[in-house]
Amino acid sequence: MILLTISYLAGVLTIVSPCILPVLPFVFSRAGRPFATSILPMLIGKVVTFAGVATLAAIGGDWAVQANEAGRYAAIAVLAVFGVMLLSPQVGVVVTRPLVAFGNRLSHRAAGQRASVGASLLLGVATGLLWAPCAGPVLGLVLTGAALHGANVGTTLLLAAYAAGAATSLALALLAGGRVFAAMKRSLGFGERLRQGLGIAVLAGVAAIALGLDTGLLARLSFAGTTSIEQSLLDRLHGEPFKTEANHRATPAVNGQVRDYRSNLPVEGIFPPVDGAVEWLNSKPLTVEELRGKVVLVDFWTYSCINCIRTIPYVRAWAEKYRDQGLVVIGVHAPEFAFERRIDNVKRAVRDFNIDYPVAVDNDFAIWRAFGNSYWPAHYFIDAEGRIRHHHFGEGDYAQSERVIQELLAEAAGSRRNGSGLVQPETKGAEVAADLANLQSGEDYVGYMRAANFASPEAVAADEARDYTVGKPRLNQWGLAGNWTVGAEQATLNRAGGAVSYRFSARDLHLVLGPGASGGKVRFQVLVDGAAPGADHGSDIDPEGNGTVRETRLYQLVRQSGEVRERTFEIRFLDPGVEAFVFTFG
Predict the structure, then answer these.
(1) End-to-end CA distance of the chain, in Å?
(2) What is the DSSP string of 563-582?
(3) CB of 571 within 8 A of CB of 500?
(4) Which end of the chain has fewer CB atoms < 10 Å from its terminal CB, N or C?
(5) With contact defined as beta carbons under 8 Å apart, do 47 and 164 qualify?
(6) Do residues 494 and 465 touch, judged by C-beta distance below 8 A?
(7) How many CB atoms lie within 10 A of CB 486?
(8) Which residue pairs, CB below 8 angstroms and at least 24 apart, start in 427-431?
């Protein structure tokens, strides 16, 4: 119920986000109409359609992709006709005969000659098919949960709550704006100009959606606007799954002995069970009971996640520095992709990252659910009495996290230690912190289940071999060239010579790649703006752009050594069979 409420409130916030702009002309075309027969049916159609389509996207599959794609095309066509008819009803005369009656009916109703529940519902359905809200933390939490655990009734309800929140704020805006519209229409000759202005706005909205501005530029503009509010809502929620009635200040007592030093860190919850891992690496299975008396850091990670990779050097350094003082670090590996469920892959990653602390392989998400976790990476800091005293989600804030460790160790020992500085781990390759000041590109998935910004002119043929061409992608768009089979999580190259291109603006470009079912080596060459990268090569290629895919993991392919600017990246594979999963940047 709490998450439903937060999803609803997050939807309400979209009214102040630029990514709602392409939808507003369609919505405000109903301003001044009767609420029950015009505004309400349109909003209901929008909510139901958005929740249904988003659920289909979570389910994935060929039929879901084709239904969504066909629905978007149909919606764009319907709304384009709607805009033209608003602009000039006489245009209906020259429209081909099958569309004349439909167009005239739609234009008459839009112009207010008679209100129709059916016409409003149709407008709402079309709007819901095209509405792509900016995926802030709340919507991201819902979609991540659907991807991890599959779409279900709970997912649909959360998506419906999100859309209902947006519909509520739009309804309030319409009710207030309707009075203004009515007054404007009473002005001499202004009603006709207002209707034509709405027609122009509707066509502009259709053009923006057709060109991808609703999910590209507007999404980037709006991200900072509502994310902080959504994140604060989630932070208030997060302690709920493991809430305890303990006081907000701890009274440390270990083995019945009251300690002299007491930290001001609040108690956020109790240490939930760490049972359910399919395997433990670097350790026998651990339990909460045997960890009592130790300070514990639980780190949720997955080995191809760039955010986790950049955090690992700090976690590794903390484990080494504070091990003898009573700190136990537990890495909980919760997979995002199917290949991350393979125990041998996780073992190799643990070895490659030089991780020597215990790692619980949480393939069934048992520990993840026990903590009520929703993020990679996520850190939970637990005191010697088995109480959660602090948490941190994502990268950064390393100094504060280490001071929490020092506080809890001091509390367990009963006295503060002086002169304990902070770690400064050496980082290399993809482990180096992101250049946030110059980061203008975000994560992009290649598999159809979560793909966005795909620029190849050919439509995706889910789970079928198809020839693709790249064209000229705009900033933060990508495309395929050659014969590929696009699956739910990855695209697989069927014949040698295929390529992937991306127009990006960031210091670093990474791509998660694997050798495919054959397990053989796949040679590739990277070009940046059509030439060898030279000094701008990533850690997994040489200056000529040559590299080899040997195992499924994240590959750093570009690190701009000079001024960070917009570039075109291309990776061409000399052998077939490669699998491409996700682009990340830094």
Answers:
(1) 36
(2) ----EEEEEEESSS--EEEE
(3) yes
(4) N
(5) yes
(6) yes
(7) 26
(8) 427/310, 427/313, 428/539, 429/538, 429/539, 429/540, 429/556, 430/306, 430/309, 430/310, 430/508, 430/510, 430/539, 430/554, 430/556, 430/586, 431/309, 431/310, 431/312, 431/313
Size of the chain, expressed as the number of residues it contains: 586
CA–CA distance, 257 with 383 (Å, rounded to integer):
15
Place of tokens 């994310």: 227
Model confidence, pTM:
0.63
Question: How much is the pLDDT for 160?
Answer: 80
**How far is it, in rounded angstroms, from Cα 216 to Cα 531?**
27
Helix spans in 353-433 (H): 366-371, 398-413
What average pLDDT does this structure show over 57-64?
47
> What radius of gyration do the chain's Cα atoms show?
27
For residue 12, name the pLDDT band (cuts at 50, 70, 90). confident
% residues pLDDT > 90 (the chain): 50
Q: How far from the centroid of its chain's Cα atoms is residue 298's Cα?
A: 23
For residues 34-61, give the mean pLDDT. 71
Short-list 510, 516, 519, CA closest to 537:
510
Rounded (to 5) percent helix, strand, coil in the chain: 45, 20, 35
Which band of pLDDT confidence, cut at 50, 70 and 90, is reported for residue 200? Answer: confident
Decide: 250 and 270 in contact? Cβ < 8 Å.
Answer: no
Specify whether the CB–CB gap between 481 and 465 falls below 8 A: no
What secondary structure does DSSP assign to 399-414, as a single string? HHHHHHHHHHHHHHHT
| Cα distance between residue 367 and residue 365, in whole Å | 6
| Interval 310-338: pLDDT, tens | 999 999 999 999 999 999 999 999 999 99
Q: Which of 382, 340, 393 is nearest to 140 (CA)?
A: 393
Structure tokens at 396: 């950064």
- The upper half-sphere exposure of residue 403, i.e. CA atoms within 13 Å in the direction of its Cβ, equals 7
E-assigned strands of 384-543? Answer: 387-393, 444-445, 465-468, 478-486, 491-493, 499-504, 508-514, 522-528
Least confident of 14-28, 139-153, 157-171: 139-153
Identify whether the C-beta of residue 92 lies closer than 8 Å to the C-beta of residue 85: yes
pLDDT band at 161 (very low <50, low <70, confident <90, very high): confident
Token pair belonging to 18: 């630029």
- Rounded to an integer, what distance in angstroms lies between the CA atom of residue 273 and that of residue 360? 12
| 516 DSSP assignment | -
- Angle, in degrees to the nearest 10, between helices 62-87 and 190-210: 150
DSSP three-state, residue 491: strand
- Element spanning 68, H or E: helix 62-87
Cα separation, 511 vs 516, whole angstroms: 15
Compute the distance between CA of residue 489 and CA of residue 384 in angstroms, rounded to an integer: 41
Torsion angle, alpha carbons of 140, 141, 143, 144, to 10: 110
The DSSP output letter for 39 is: I
